[in-house]
Specification:
- The structure is a homodimer.
- By secondary structure, chain A is an alpha/beta fold.
- The first copy, chain A, has two domains: 182 residues, Rossmann fold; 174 residues, Rossmann fold (3-Layer(aba) Sandwich).
- Chain A contains 13 helices and eleven strands.
- The longest helix of chain A has 21 residues.
- Chains A and B meet through β3, α3, α4, α6 and α10 of A and β3, α3, α4, α6 and α10 of B.
């Protein structure tokens, strides 16, 4: 119970709007325990460990920690490094030298796998050690979690962005296609549905990687909405795949290259542009536009869910509490126990590490082109308080004269 | 003074976050005057006039008008139509039939030219008529205006987006290039500078259409920042031009086609991707990303400058007051009379119509790759209250052991 030594907290993978809440949750809680001799932050994830790039969070003011907690992106820096056996050896050389006995790694699937690997190394080498994974990912794709910190704020950004895109598209009608982050799981693209207030609001169509994407069906869907409303707003996950599991971008690029022998397309805007060009070509609609949300959706400053902030703080704090109460390893998970209330558990790291949760079938409609009311029930409480609402004129039409 | 008849208000061109404030400013003020027999809103700009698609804003609740005022994008819909002689004839057939004597058109350069054309037609045809242009454009490029409604909120979005992009780039270092709206004037790309709090914060480089863009100089600039900081955040106007005035996108696409004979690039993401590919190719930097802000920057729901909201409301209200005090034509302009205070004037429409204001030289640095302190003094008060601020850890580095 009273394992004495230093604690290291680090952040891995893509930043989120609330990942610093978790880091500060760990730091503030850890600073209360006398057996934790120092609270270190490793800079740029595990890369900072092997290079001994630490900052001493025991010497940071509470006031500034709170300011950093409210700041998006990873305050300690991040990394895409993943440790192999040799890397692990380096980590533990450093851990031994500094007498580090507690390790908290805030991240997604890859980071949870890092915790598993590091912990295994500790066990195999009889190093008395506690390693806890703290969840984070805007993709919302961690197993055993109702949702993951970072997702609610990114979802809120996507919803607010679609409110604006819908209003823009209403003012200057046409087809608008937005490409949203999400290589395997479609939660974030699906969150665009929260923009809808009136029955004819966009998004009108949502495509996620969970359902095989057919370009022909897509064109039929767009035509159907456009014929009905004179406009169409579409939300698409970047990772949509065809029925063989090939990303649509890759399969359409090959198609294009085969047909014309000379088209090279790459980079962030390509999928949206490909889909927009197909709509133009097949439906002869003049005004077809695409946007790719890119990095804006994961660290925009000033669009955050208060529910997300609170929970991100708590998973960090709970992680330390679990470790101080004897847990030697695991991943803190968010569990929905009321509408809306959550509790936190410590799950075996193997249940989370390097696995991917997808959207369950009951969240996607039968046509595979929109979400269900069950998804909206799931999503709404996560978006937090003070969501803006769009208003429409209700003034009556006047009579035409001649 | 007491010209009796109906009033028509309409919205033209690209939507902004506050264009409905101006529409509501016109409507609420106009409803006070008995000689204005009805306040009509034309749907989709002047297109709604020729098609007699009007809503009766005299029959709209004040409460709902206030809610619509706070909603981004054009609540009456918009248009890109520009009237020729025949179109004008249609407009006045409708105006005569409905006894419309006041016309308020909220828009940018093109819309102000429409007001000029319509007013000229009225004069030539002895139709007793008052037509006022109400300014609006995120491009901030209207003559005689200190700034234009819509720009401050778009600038705030861009600044908040760059705060996030800077923090993201700090966490996972590399080169990040963002492409911002602005075909002729670079104000909006320049507004990214408001994201900078610490001296090493991005954006580190800003390129606007006002200065000839050289790809070789750009590569040298990026290298210089990257060598110094290990990262580089760049803000670029979509309309950057080479020394011959050719848009960079067009000239580089031609180059690419000449060199490889087979590259087709088009659409929203192309400029950012071209620049990113050049950086990768010339500087061998692994992590180079680009984002194109697209429609998000002009109608994102939930990011607005309160200064902008107030002024957008006032230009509408003042427009009606000018007309009710005898003005027959003109464009309402914003004039800075204090730090920070503005007043409104009615300028001759010819001074604004179809002209473009560019960034003055004193707002751009000698190297043509950043803004000056004078620009920051100009910009800061426009962003409004409650701008978020990013905080950094200040915890001391620990000693390395071996």
């Amino acid at each position: 119970m009273d394992l004495k030594g230093k604690l290291v907290v680090a952040q891995g993978g893509g930043p989120t709007a609330v990942i610093n809440q978790s880091m500060v949750g760990v730091a503030l809680e850890a600073r209360k325990y006398p057996q934790i001799t120092k609270v270190y932050g490793a800079l740029n994830g595990i890369n900072g460990i092997v290079n001994q790039n630490f900052v001493d969070l025991s010497q940071e003011t509470t006031e500034n920690l709170e300011l950093v907690a409210a700041t998006p992106s990873s305050g300690l820096g991040s990394t895409r490094d993943k440790p192999d056996a040799k890397y692990c050896e380096h980590i533990f050389q450093v851990f031994r030298a500094h007498d580090v006995r507690y390790f908290f790694y805030i991240g997604g699937n890859d980071s949870s796998d890092t915790v598993r690997i590091v912990n295994e190394y500790a066990k195999n080498n009889n190093y008395d050690f506690r390693a806890i994974h703290i969840p984070k990912t805007i993709d919302n794709d961690l197993m055993c979690n109702d949702h993951t910190p970072g997702f609610p704020s990114a979802a809120r950004f996507v919803a607010q962005a679609f409110m604006g895109i819908n209003l823009d598209n209403r003012a200057l009608p046409g087809v608008h296609i937005s490409v949203i982050m999400g290589r395997h799981a479609g939660f974030l693209a699906a969150a665009s549905a929260a923009a809808r207030l009136y029955p004819d609001d966009g998004p009108h169509l949502i495509y996620t990687p969970e359902c095989p994407f057919s370009i022909d069906k897509f064109i039929i869907d767009v035509k159907s909405v456009y014929d009905r409303l004179g406009r169409c707003v579409v939300s698409v996950s970047e990772g949509i795949q065809d029925k063989n599991g090939t990303p649509v971008l890759a399969s359409m690029m090959n198609l294009a290259t085969d047909a014309h022998g000379n088209v090279q397309l790459s980079g962030t805007g390509a999928l949206g542009e490909l889909l927009a060009n197909k709509v133009k070509e097949k439906l002869s609609i003049g005004r077809v536009r695409s946007d790719t949300f890119g990095y804006l959706q994961r660290s925009f400053m000033g669009c955050v869910s208060d529910v997300d902030q609170r929970e991100a703080r708590e998973v960090g704090e709970k992680g330390v509490q679990f470790a101080m109460n004897g847990a030697t390893e695991g991943s803190v998970t968010i569990n929905r126990i009321g509408n809306y209330a959550v509790d936190y558990r410590l799950n075996p790291i193997e249940d989370i590490a390097a696995k991917t949760k997808l959207m369950p079938d009951e969240f996607i409609n039968a046509e595979s082109n929109y979400v269900t009311p069950a998804f909206m029930d799931y999503l709404r409480p996560l978006l937090g308080s003070g969501m803006p609402e769009a208003a429409r004129l209700r003034a009556p039409r006047t009579e035409k004269l001649n």
